[in-house]
Amino acid sequence: MAQNKAKASTQQHLDIEDITENLVILKAGSVAMILTTTAVNFDILSEAEQDATIYAYAAFLNSLSFPVQVLIRSKKADITTYYQHLEESVRNQPNPDLKRQIQKYMEFIQSTVQQKTILDKQFYFIISSSQLDLGLKAFKKSSQTKYKTKADQIRDAQVNLFPRRDHIIKQAARLGLAARQLTTKELIELYYDIYNPAPTGTQRIILDTDSLGAPLVKPSVESPEPASSQPAPPVAESPDTQTANSQKPQSASQTIPNPGQTAGQPSQNQEEALKNLRETTSYAAGFVTQRQQAYQQTQKPT
After folding, report:
1. 2, part of any domain
2. Rounded-to-integer distance, Cα 45 and Cα 52, Å
């Protein structure tokens, strides 16, 4: 009983059996392909362009002979990287007029973020292939005997999905959209982000396909190692190195450890900074106490 509980995993409750060959294999027996596509701002188009887009979209719908699912994902965008790129552009811009314009644009972004929620929208086409696509005779035959290998299932799915993919890409180009098929890595990241939503932005992970079938998927976050209780062994220094170290000013800002220092052990500069901080704190506490006592003496009635 205990062994069965140990083998249980949340992956058993997912509809996904495997992600391979840029396809999603579902436990129900069907295979899905996901295409990502760009978008067009319909409001800024002219009246003639809007009419042409509507006619092209109607032609796209009428040309479909297979089911297509359109998915729109909206997430709160994280513009930290974009804002840092603007700051770097300001520092590297020699033209003062362009630098002033970039700074105004940065102020506009700050005010927009404070007043409104910036959303990042992603658009997908999802097409699937099941045993029903093989025909009634093939469906009856396949229902009695399942696929011997996963490669046979993928091969039959590719025969049905590849023409449908090419048709969608061609029709999307008439709408001014650029569609492409998601790779295996992109599919893993997409489903990871769906089942593990981040507050902002999109979580970028690095997973291998073998970890999907593991009983437990370990997180790709390194936990810090605890500090060792043993002191660091002394490092022999040459006379030139000792002279250079004695000439360096020891301040609280110099807390960068030496290259030979063991991770988790404080350096000499860190100890000096901690000592100076403690002395400053005790001096400030004594000063505050003296001021309070002097104030209380002045408040006593004569």
Report:
1. no
2. 10
